[in-house]
Amino acid sequence: MNGLAAVSGKIAMSIGLVFIAMGAASAVTERPVKALALDTTSEPVWTSVPIRIDPARQTYERVEAREGQGQEQYPIKFRPGAKFKVIDGATFEANGSRITLAGATPLSRTQICNSGQKRMACGTRAFVTMSKALAGKFIDCRSVGANLFKCRSNGNDLSRILARAQG
Rounded distance, CA 119 to CA 128, Å? Predict the structure, then answer.
């Protein structure tokens, strides 16, 4: 019992010395705290009622947007779950809009191609490739001409995907 009391006393004394040392260190290094004040002469930053902003009275520097900055490069968006209808190897419909890919060959579904000595069902291959490229993917498109579009499937150029499939 005597041993336990001696250990408890030493622990209490150690804790007390730590508090005394912390107080002494704080007194030596204490610096006055500068109070921050709100500039009451400026206009309010936040209001509880809508106010009209006059751009002519604002002192902010206005910088013109660079070419392509602030504009979406592929503004037409189709998200996974959109209903696509493949028309041919270069055309599909989505949400009532017909989109023909620039740079892709429009092959009908039944078209047969000759590759050297071989005959291939290139129309079916293009149809299947287009269907797989559209199904469940993020599709982004932009207009590049009269009824012609450049599209991406999950960020990959759809025309290149179709060209690779044709061999």
Answer: 17
Distance (Å, rounded) from C-alpha 52 to C-alpha 56? Answer: 12
Q: Are 83 and 96 in contact (CB under 8 A)?
A: no
Euclidean distance between CA atoms 27 and 12, whole angstroms: 23
* Tokens linked to 30: 């204490």
- pLDDT tens digits for range 44-61: 667 778 777 787 777 777
Among 70, 99, 89, residue whose Cα is nearest residue 131: 89
Query: Rounded to an integer, what distance in angstroms lies between the CA atom of residue 152 and that of residue 138?
Result: 8
What CA–CA distance (Å, rounded) separates 22 from 91? 77
The whole-model pTM stands at 0.55
Residue with tokens 């490069």: 73
Closest C-alpha to 148, from 108, 109, 103: 103
pLDDT at 68 over 70: no
Residue ranges of domains in the chain:
76-166
The continuous run of DSSP H or E covering 128 comes out as helix 122-134
